[in-house]
Specification:
Blueprint (H helix, E strand, L loop, with lengths): L2 E4 L15 H10 L2 H16 L4 E8 L17 H11 L8 E8 L1 E2 L1 H18 L3 E10 L1 H6 L6 E3 L4 E3 L4 E2 L5 H7 L23 H26 L7 H4 L4 E3 H7 L4 E2 L2 H9 L4 E4 L4 E3 L2 E3 L6
Parallel strand pairs: 2-3, 2-11, 3-5, 5-6, 5-7, 6-10
Antiparallel strand pairs: 1-4, 1-8, 7-9, 12-13
């Protein structure tokens, strides 16, 4: 079976109408760090957009898996599906005061989880824009992996489900069923491990050991991301923190898995004042299989 960061029980944008002068951008890039550049360019932006702080919001929702779905059903959450929205949320020509990312996912593909996480952190580093993440119903397993991209603050509701830091792989065995049907499984391979964990063949100890090795290695990568994100804030022992256990948002604060209980607009208003404006990039709403979003100012 495939390997997943999954909780065991999961429950067309218009371009900005304002621009920073090119000579300011060039000068900033030559002489300033990413954080200093963000601060200076954000000040220039305010000359054009007014004095109100601006926060770009983005929603990452659904099962994490490769590809882009079609139709009106649940859509997969992958780098392919969100990379355009991510790029616009971190637009260097605009440089908002912060990017706030809402996560609502029980997890899924380890690779896609890491690709999305890495793209967020790369964009944040390149632009110097602060990133804060917010869990809604669930940010578990791969969903929590994405939550860790919020290096400037991680939040959840008190009843959100957070955690499940682990890796799972499962399947079914049909060996006895084939015997009762009088069917013989015939497999021909070049390479002794090509048919490992075939559901129609008996399990072998060496196959199970190989699969466990893969699970442990991927789990180790997951733990590295969590430790980089939370570090000394993590108050749980590693054995429990990385056991795959899930926690409510309230418990997650106590254990250091997140920073505080809160939701996007409340936290942003607390940080930037009541006059902060929001622009939405990525509502994950779908029109004929393609994502579309709308600007939302408040």
């Amino acid at each position: 079976g495939a390997l997943h960061f999954t909780c065991a029980q999961p429950s067309t944008l218009r371009p900005p109408s304002y621009r920073t002068p090119n000579h300011v951008q060039a000068s900033a890039r030559r002489h300033l760090s990413a954080a200093e550049m963000a601060s200076k360019l954000s000040a220039w932006n305010r000359l054009f957009r007014g004095s109100k702080p601006l926060v770009h919001t983005l929603r990452l929702q659904g099962m994490i898996q490769a590809g882009r779905g079609g139709g009106f059903g649940p859509q997969p959450l992958s780098l392919e599906a969100v990379e355009r929205e991510l790029a616009r949320a971190f637009d260097k020509r605009v440089l908002p005061d912060a990017v706030a990312i809402t996560v609502n996912s029980p997890g899924g593909s380890p690779v896609q989880s890491d690709l999305i996480y890495t793209r967020i952190r790369t964009l944040a580093k390149e632009t110097g824009i602060p990133v804060m993440t917010f869990a809604e119903d669930v940010a578990a397993s791969g969903g929590y992996y994405l939550l860790c991209a919020g290096k400037d603050g991680i939040y959840a509701r008190d009843t959100s489900i957070v955690g499940s830091i682990g890796v799972v792989s499962g399947g079914f065995g049909f060996v006895d069923a084939l015997k009762r049907l009088g069917v013989e499984r015939r497999v021909y391979t070049s390479g002794k491990s090509k048919s490992q964990l075939d559901p129609f063949l008996p399990e072998k100890d060496e196959d199970l050991a190989l699969r466990q090795r893969l699970l442990n290695d991927i789990h180790s990568s997951f733990k590295g991301v969590v430790m980089e994100s939370r570090g000394a804030k993590l108050k749980l022992g590693e054995e429990r923190a990385f056991s795959g256990e899930v926690f409510t948002g309230r418990e997650a604060v106590e254990h250091g898995l997140i920073d505080a209980v809160g939701e996007v607009r409340g936290v942003m208003r607390e940080k930037f004042g009541e006059k902060v404006r929001f622009r939405n990039f990525g509502g994950r709403r779908m029109l004929f299989g393609a994502p579309f979003s709308s600007d939302a100012n408040a």
